[in-house]
Amino acid sequence: MSTNSSLPRNALYGNSAFSFLSGLxxxxxxxxxxxxLGISASWTVLVLGIGLMLYGIExxxxxRAEPVHAGIARFAVYADFTWVVLSALLxxxxxxxxxxxxxxxxxxxxxxVLTFVILQYVGxxxxxx
Length: 129
Hints:
This protein is mainly α and 129 residues long. The chain has one domain. Helices cover 82% and strands 0% of the residues. It is built from five helices and no strands. The chain has helices at 6-28, 30-37, 42-64, 70-93, 100-127. Helix 1 runs antiparallel to helix 3, helix 2 (30-37) packs across helix 3 and helix 4 packs antiparallel against helix 5.
């Protein structure tokens, strides 16, 4: 296995920071985020925030390992891709009646997460060559 792990490491660090800080914002401002999204149960935003913070910590630990923990990086690719797909389903199915601004917010976050998916995937491919 190659020692070329700067791309996946940096992508995981970025993902970790984004996830943890998003989770912290969801935790601290759950009522405001719920109102922005158009959902009445702010506790769901609170729970999502806690999950995002834990995910961010896990991804950070995988990035910090020497060499980068490929299993954690692979998990991050799959988990983030799942996030993007579920975001698209939530936006386009109207399963939950989000506000228009909430849908745009979800789409922007999904775009950022998709960027992490691509960077982590490319980084993993480079590591295994």
